[in-house]
Amino acid sequence: MQVKLMTMIGAVLGSMLVWAGSAAAEAKFVDLQHSKWAEDGIAYMSERGTVAGYGNGIFKPEGLVTRAQAVTFMVRELYPQELQKAVQGTAYSDVPTTHPFYREIAIAAKHRLASGFPNGTFHPDAPISRAETAAFLTRAYPLVEGKQSVSLTDTEKHWAEAPILILSSNGLVGGYSDGTYRPNRSVTRAEYAVFMARVIRFEREAAIQTQDWDKLISYMTVSEQVGQMLMPDIRQWNGKVTTTVNEGLKRSIHDQDLGGLILFDKNIVDVRQVTTFTHNIQKEAGDIPMFLSIDQEGGVIKRIPGGTNLPGQMALGATGDTALAEAAGQLTGEELKALGVQVNFAPVLDINSNPDNPIIGMRSFGSDADLVTRLGLAAITGLQKSEVIAAVKHFPGHGDTTVDSHLGMPVLPHNRERLDAVELKPFRAAIENGVEMIMTAHIAFPAIDNEHVTSLKDGTSVPIPATLSKKVLTGLLREELGYEGLIVSDAFTMDAIAEHFGENQAVERAVSAGVDIILMPQDSAAAHQTLVNAVNSGNIPTETIHSSVKRILELKAKYGLFERSETLTYKLARLNDIIGSKEHRTVEREIAERAVTLLASREGEQPDLIRQGDQVVIVAAEEDQAKQLEKQLLQAANSLSLETEIAVVSQGKTNEALQAIGKADYVILASYQFRNVASQFGWSDYQTLIDAMNRRNQRYTLLSLGNPYETIYLNNVRSGLAVYGKQEPNTKAGINVLLGQQKPGGKLPVKTP
After folding, report:
1. For 111-130, how does the pLDDT look when each residue is reduced to its tens digit (9 = 90+)?
2. Residues sharing a CB contact under 8 Å with residue 111, sequence separation 6 or more, in sequence order
3. Which of 400, 414, 534, 674 has the lowest CB atom count within 10 Å?
4. Residues 6+ apart with CB under 8 A from 738
5. What's the CA gap between 108 and 129, in Å, rounded?
6. 518 within 8 A of 231, measured Cβ to Cβ
């Protein structure tokens, strides 16, 4: 039988160290120059808070480990909570209460991690041997004999033969080149740290392979556990935006044991860069991969340059087509997955029943609960088919508000009957159909929770938002609606949370209420420490943390995050076939074309059409938007011999726009209302232009590029179209209708009195 020996200072098996990270012990300890072989193990155990140095960067790696120190290391690992409690005395005659490790030895004796000698002594200050180390570790950890062949010449019939065999057959300890184990030899501090690191990593890897998440959690420190519950954004480092894995990002990932990150367009240059970025982030993540998330709703909320720029949710609402909604979700997921992103904060399940909503608007499918439910479920299915997690938002519903929760605290005053019939309907259906992640809203719902607290901002009484409400998240969402998936908060940088509650208090309260993942804490390091302190003090029960972490690990495993076999070269080679592919662009174009909706017409079926040789004036609130429309018009109508001019409509420039349209045969009057209260938009300027064109009986079309509420606030519009976005697919589809190349077949998905 072939004998496979490991030297004491040999490399640890690759399968145990693949995801060990790259922490440098020398950053903490300065005396490891002659113990490079142990550097990684010492760093790992030091980061876990298990082993410590002597101050001033001194570790003394060649110093011998005493029996007391050995059990202390294990107790710190396995029973850290008990170190804060009173302990029973020990029966060892040579371990007085004044011994520096009295408490640890007592805890070890209670759990039978180590035993004394027949004469009632423990020999706490005697160096521990290699045999005793094997015995201690196999008592502490539930190891069984492995498959590696072992032939050691000096362990047969030794009292520690069995534990030595267990460790060596799993590749966790080794012998010497002469075939001996030398069981009675003393163990150094470096060796003991390496032994423990090997065992812990081995057990963690085994738990991951068998998907025994309870076991894995038992090997995770409190820091690691609460780190899984944080998903910060990626901030600047040294005054520059972060688009690569720099030292600042590495430090955040490792110091806070982060379980996830959210990417924004500031972190993205192009598709090759972001694919490389996400790949390298996962390499830093250790043995537990990270959730990498993004807001890719389509339409006005998009992040990926060069990706398929879908027309948006309200455009889908105008088509009313569930097959298109599913296709939109699937292609979005395919592109995100190719880029290394696993979580999409979409679809929006808010029902935009209030035209004055300043933040949802065309991000919603519409104002009808049934329409939102049908299309929302289809979009979720599409994302899940592409193996990307759909994180629906914003529970229990952000659609009927007039305050942007980024800027203040919205309150939804409806009674419970109304909430059940409208706001909760799509979320209830999503839960019944297996949605796996739900984002909370920073909105107060007094019909569910009417608790108020004193605002830290101004001392006023403010209601508790859903994100911090146990009645909403645990009572309503989990217990009443039966939701078993992950709850992620909306961003903690938003003023509805940040101004009134103070981040540390809000973070602790959110987790206590039922939030599994805190999104974008203002200070992620402080949020991490807040949760560590709350667990250690008992303010948050360990069971609460364990439940959240288990849900997180289960979902990461379900979506294959632990399977990290694809190389970066392979990922980059696939991008051109997926990102912005011909098939995806076809779906994009079909949604945009079928969404175009007639708002007003002289003839009933079409708006005023552009004719051969027309002098066309394009009026928009922004010059760039007017130029985009002009370019698309000339490309689509190159045979009509059109002449074009652009003008800007805004406060103080109305007369200039009037002069421009006075000489036009046809006017495209583009309006864009989003991220403000519709009733407070500058409609008077548009009304002045419409009145002038009506008096002249000019041909024109009011082209709605944003929230399609123009007909509520403008009178006597004779020709109007809604395209639900100012992106190029939307505007091109609108231009095609104005040229008579297609008919507007969309149906307005919101109510306009």
Report:
1. 999 889 999 999 999 999 99
2. 78, 79
3. 414
4. 607, 608, 609, 610, 633, 668, 701, 703, 721
5. 18
6. yes
What average pLDDT does the segment 540-561 reach?
Answer: 98
What single DSSP character describes residue 127? B
* Residue owning tokens 């998440």: 213
Q: Which two tokens stand for residue 434?
A: 């297996």
Strand residues in 274-363 grouped as ranges (E)? 291-294, 343-344
| 329, amino acid identity | G
C-alpha pair distances (Å), 590 with each of 297, 729, 742: 17, 9, 12
**Over 348-407, what HEC string results?**
ECCCCCCCCCCCCHHHCCCCCHHHHHHHHHHHHHHHHHCCCEEEEEEECCCCCCCCCCCC
pLDDT bracket for residue 5 (50, 70, 90): very low
How far apart (Å, rounded) are the C-alpha atoms in residues 54 and 689? 79
Nearest CA among 719, 683, 716 for reference residue 702: 719
Length in residues, the chain: 753
Q: How far apart are alpha carbons 314 and 723 in whole angstroms?
A: 9
The one-letter code for the residue type at 678 is A
**Spatial contact of 579 and 338, defined as CB atoms under 8 Å apart:** yes
The Cα angle at residue 474 between residues 468 and 476, in degrees rounded to 5? 100
Report in angstroms the alpha-carbon separations of 177 from 160, 181, 190, 195, 700.
20, 9, 20, 19, 91
Note the Cα 271 to chain centre separation in Å. Answer: 19
Chain centroid offset of residue 448 CA:
27
Closest CA to 310 of 383, 238, 370: 383
Cα(219)–Cα(138) distance, integer angstroms: 15
Q: Model confidence over 405-453: pLDDT tens digits? A: 677 778 999 999 999 999 999 999 999 999 999 999 999 999 999 999 9
**At 541, phi and psi to the nearest 5?**
-65, 145
What residues form DSSP beta bridges with 547?
A: none
Phi, psi of 358 (to 5 degrees): -90, -5
Which amino acid, residue 647? A
Q: Identify whether 355 is preceded by a cis peptide bond (ω within 30 of 0).
A: no
**pLDDT tens sequence across 314-365:** 999 999 999 999 999 999 999 999 999 999 999 999 999 999 999 999 999 9
